[in-house]
Amino acid sequence: MAEFTMDLNDEQKEVRDWLHGFAADVIRPAAAEWDEREETPWPVIQEAAKLGIYSLDFYAQQFFDPSGLGIPMAMEELFWGDAGIALSIVGTGLAAVGVLANGTEEQIGTWIPQMYGDVNDVKVAAFCSSEPDAGSDVAAMRTRAVYDEAKDEWVLNGTKTWATNGGIANVHVVVASVDPALGSKGHASFIVPPNTPGLSQGQKFKKHGIRASHTAEVVLENVRIPGSCLLGGKDKLDERLARSREKAQKGGERVKNAAMATFEASRPAVGAMAVGTARAAYEEALEYAKTREQFGRPIIDNQGVAFQLADMRTSIDAARLLVWRASWMATTGKKFENAEGSMSKLFASETAKKVTAQAVQILGGNGFTREYPVERMHRDAAIYTIFEGTSEIQRLVIARTLSGMPIR
Ligand SMILES: Cc1cc2nc3c(=O)[nH]c(=O)nc-3n(C[C@H](O)[C@H](O)[C@H](O)COP(=O)(O)OP(=O)(O)OC[C@H]3O[C@@H](n4cnc5c(N)ncnc54)[C@H](O)[C@@H]3O)c2cc1C
Hints:
Elements: H1 10-37, H2 42-51, H3 56-63, H4 70-81, H5 83-102, H6 105-116, E1 117-118, E2 121-122, E3 125-128, E4 144-148, E5 153-164, E6 171-177, E7 187-192, E8 199-204, E9 215-226, H7 234-249, H8 258-291, E10 293-294, E11 297-298, H9 303-332, H10 340-362, H11 364-367, H12 374-381, H13 391-403
Parallel strand pairs: 3-6
Antiparallel strand pairs: 1-2, 4-5, 5-9, 6-7, 8-9, 10-11
The structure holds flavin-adenine dinucleotide (FAD).
Flavin-adenine dinucleotide is lined by residues 127-130, 135-136, 162-164, 207, 210, 215, 383, 386-388, 390, 392-393, 396.
């Protein structure tokens, strides 16, 4: 088992520098344009695909890096470039992880390549869990999956919302209830293959930030998919449901929710995205403070400004430490006994919100305009305290874990 280290090895440094180069040379110069267009930046994704950055191989390599630092390091660099474009690049990876975590080898081999497409015809994938009435309260999910035994098909009905790449994805991973009486333990994940009749895009959202990332409703009307599209297969689902029913009958014994455990492990990755945005805004603010002069001296010559920068950098480094610790724990199979995954996401996302607001302040009037990137970074940072579990939900998870009490 890899010991926790903050020293990246030579190979990791090489990958980091390569990603930083892509973020600086390709992502950052395109950021303002795609933010204004509010569209998926296909040419940038294609460029990433050409270099091998948009590919399962690259994602898997970072995911299986034994030190646990591969994914956070990659996320930080890409999101340092621009959060909206970076989410368009890594959004498919989030859906792919859903298949990697729950799918059979055959499902992984069949569907993940179709999520990415190829260099000449890049595709994206979507992970659809949230619904209009089931955001933080995942158990309230209404989308139903009913098994048609005669045809060995599943029939999906419902409306998903806030799906990154929803409706434009080649492959959609959809979470649906197969047994509503079991709440979230009655959920299962399904692949909806390309061009399946009945799946359509609903409203596309106009957003406050990460506007280069497509976010939309996904409507499922009598969507029929082959039995083989149930991730993990029917036998495994039946076994899991039987266990949950038995435990429920025994009287409310708490069953570890697999989805919650997966979220706990994926949260450091979102924390790393937030660190990337925070670092980008801090660097802009530091540079500006050194060059902008008022009262005959650079504004950084005032403690009021310099101390803010000191606090910003301290928080960013602290956030990165929490993210790396949680990611190392997840990779090496250490149990999150104190909800360390949630801690990392909570602290890093709140840091990004605060640091980007401070950066706007340090740039003064310029920080409030779209001439300078901190304005966009500040808008983008707001997402981190919302998706993959809001800050309040992270606090709930941490408090419950620490206390063992069913805190509401
Ligand atoms: C840009 C974007 C992209 C997204 N991408 C995806 C995606 O790809 N796939 C997907 O499935 N989902 C996605 N989401 C959905 C996201 O995960 C949800 O928005 C999030 O989980 C919060 O749900 P909600 O918006 O319904 O807020 P709500 O759950 O309605 O929460 C509203 C407020 O109430 C608070 N609150 C709720 N319950 C409690 C409680 N028990 N205690 C204290 N406070 C509470 C929340 O913290 C929040 O402040 C995305 C969302 C956005 C905005």
